[in-house]
Every structure is written in structure tokens, then in C-alpha cells.
Amino acid sequence: MARIAPVNAKGTRDFLPRDLVRRNRVFSLLRETFEHHGYEPIETPSVENTNVLEGKYGEEGDRLLFRILKRGESLEKAARMLLAEADGDHSAAALSRLFSDEALRYDLTVPFARVIAAHQNDIVFPFRRYQMQPVWRADRPQRGRYREFYQCDVDCVGSRSMTVDAEMVAIYCEVFTRLGYTNFVTRVNHRGLLNSLMAVSAVPEDKRVATMTAMDKLDKIGLDGVREELVKLALGDASVDQLIEMIGLSGTPQAMLAALRPMVADSTEGVEALDELAEVFEYAAAMGVPTERVSFDMSLVRGLSYYTGPIFETVLTDMQFGSLGGGGRYDRLIGQFTGRDLPCVGISFGLERIFDTLSEQDANEEPATTTQALVTLFSRETFAHAFALARDLRAAGICTEVYTEPKKLSTQLTFAKNKGIPLAVILGPEEIAAGAVVLRDMRTSTQRAVPSADAAAQAQALLR
Fold first, then answer.
1. What is the tens place of the pLDDT at every residue in 400-452?
2. Which residues have a Cβ under 8 Å from the Cβ of 397 and sit 6 or more positions away?
3. CB count, 10 Å around CB of 174?
4. Domains, the chain, ranges and CATH?
């Protein structure tokens, strides 16, 4: 039989216990933080109807959807029709017959909008929700970018108050601080301000997307590089100069807002955007967000087309690793399902990048296993005592593993060390005769004998 190469599909990964211990700790920290802020969990199916997903992410996003083929007889019939009718012309229309009207979800935001529309009579608004589930994108795999990955979203629907937008900044700050990061900042901008910037700078409608795409490259190519990109768009010197002046602003958010006001004074949308941003920064400060953890960045654009207000992106300040999270206000997306707009703001955490950076930076010393104690086995005569001791340890809340068979003590201790188990509980014939147990701390290679009756309490104390 031919040997099968044990290789992952592109853009996917396996996770061993050491990986999952870290991941589950992060998941637990996120859930705890979200629930402390009043957010509740939901889940949605992996498969969505294509009419739910299509047209929400722009052309590039639609191209990255993992579409589902028709099944059984339907697939066979569609394939035969394709061969018979396409006559070598594999057009999109012909190929589409192979696919069902379903696809794997691309993100969690659009399915969330569908949930709100479907269950709006069962939900109390304003509604705060969080969701942590895998999503799929037919993307080109690269560092920090995968085809299958977990996404984590936090959203509040039903309020236009900027207190909720500021709360998103505060949640980012709390999560990344608790994870041990000391080198992050949440960049803030406003889509309404960007629209106003395009108008007051006389950027033609058909060049606005390309203009904002160039602006979004500021952190990669610098101000001079952005100027070159804008010149290539043939915007005119006056437009380019004004755009560069605006996106080149720096300083405190308050100083930048003050500098921008005269520039957009004739734009109602621009003035309203500045007012909303002023509230976001004010409320974020009131929520305890340090000034060094939030910045006003005129070059921040965010790619998705459904944002309508403040937008956010959290990045590391000492390495080029892409964003660790992003989001914003999207007051019109849910209206595509309900027929009436519902205000909503939300953020997403780039979980895979978070795990990668934690691993690279060794920001946290993680245990390699969930097992806390290993009970040794010496002979069949010790089995009953060993299993009873393991029950006592588990009853005390200690995750306990019993070695599978009698072997040399050194072999069992080596197993515990290699697996990263912090405590070995040694129970041989001599210990049983003496009514004692030996607790060996594998981290310090020290041990002591304790009465059997005190073994669980003493083990708890060692593991604290």
C-alpha cells in the first residue's frame, strides 16, 4: 500500500496539546473580559446561503468564498450539463451550475446581521454579543494568514451612542494588557471623515477607492511613498498637497481634531465625524484607556465597505505583523436583512496572529499540558491504592493522570518531565505500608513525604 504523506492542506494547521493550552487560556481570558462588560455568547452555522454572504465584502471578499459543490445526482447532472453545453467555453455561468447556493462563512459579522434580522423579536436591545468560531477564506496562505482560522467578534447593536464605540477601544486595551502586551496601540479614524476628506480635496468619485488604498499604505511606504502613489492617480497638485497635509497630521487626538476642523468646516459629514471622534476619545479616557494605547490616524481606512462611522485597528508598535484586531461602526448592514437600519458597532480579534505573536515573543510562560499530577504505578498490588489516590486528587480539583503500567520509577518521572507535568505523586509499597505519599515537584526536583490523608491538600499547596 502506498504511503500517504502526512501533510496539511494549504492554509491549515494542527494544534498539539502545548498549542491548545495557550489557545484555550486566551479563549478563556477573552470570554471573561467580554462577559465582565455585559456581552453574551452566540453561535451560528458554518454554512450560510450565498445570498447572505455575497456583496458584503467587496469583489475581493466574494472571490475568497469557499463555495459548496452540489451533491450526489445534482453534482453529476450539473457536470454533464457543463460538458455538454459549455463546449470548451468554461464560462462563469456554466461553472456556476456545479455549485449549490451555500458557502462556508467568510466572517462572523454578516452571519450576526442575519441572526439579528431573524430573531429581532426575541432580543432585548441594545444587544451586546460575542462569538468565537472558525471561518474560512480561499486566500493565499502566508505568515499570519490562513484559510481556516478562528475569529472572535464583539458587537453591540441598537445604540448610536459613541460610548459603545469607546467601549470597543477599552476592550481592546484590557484584553491586550491582560495578555501581557506592552507594545500595542489602537488606531482610530472615521469613514465619514474619510468621505469628507475625499470631497474637500476634490478627488473624483471614480478615484476615491484607489486614493484611500494609497493612504492606507502610509505605515508601509511612508508619506513620500503615499505622495508618489497619489501623483500616479493624476489627482492634481492641489488635491495631493491637501491630502498629504491631512494624513500627515500628528499629535494628540485633541490637537489633530482641532487642526482638521477648519479643513472640513464646509462639510456637514466631516464636522459630524469630528464631533463623534471627540466623544470616542473623551469616553475612552473616562473608561481608563491610557493615552499611549490609542491614537488618531488619518491614514486608517479599513477594507470592508460596510463601515459607516468610527473605525479601529490594533497593531503592535515594535514589529510589522499586521493588525491584531480591527472593526468599526456599521449602521446599515443589518438593514439589508430587516429593511430598516439598526445601528451597530463591533470589533474583531485576529486570534491566529495573537497566538503567533505570543509564541514568538514568549510573552507568557505556558504549561505544556493540562495535567497537573502524575500518580505512579509500581505493581499490581499498588493499583487499588493508586486509583483511590487519583480519585482523591481529582475530587480536590487537581487534573490527575495515572501512569498506564508498572515501570521503573525513573521511566515514569522522565515521562512526567517530558510532558511538562509539574507534580509526580509517588506511591510504592513502602509508602503504602507507612501510610504516606511522596510529592515530587518536577519543576524544582525536590520532594517530601506527607501523610496519605493530607496528600490532596499538600498537592494543592504545591501547585498554587
1. 999 999 999 999 999 999 999 999 999 999 999 999 999 999 999 999 999 99
2. 460
3. 19
4. 17-52+106-361 (3.30.930.10), 66-105 (no CATH), 373-463 (3.40.50.800)
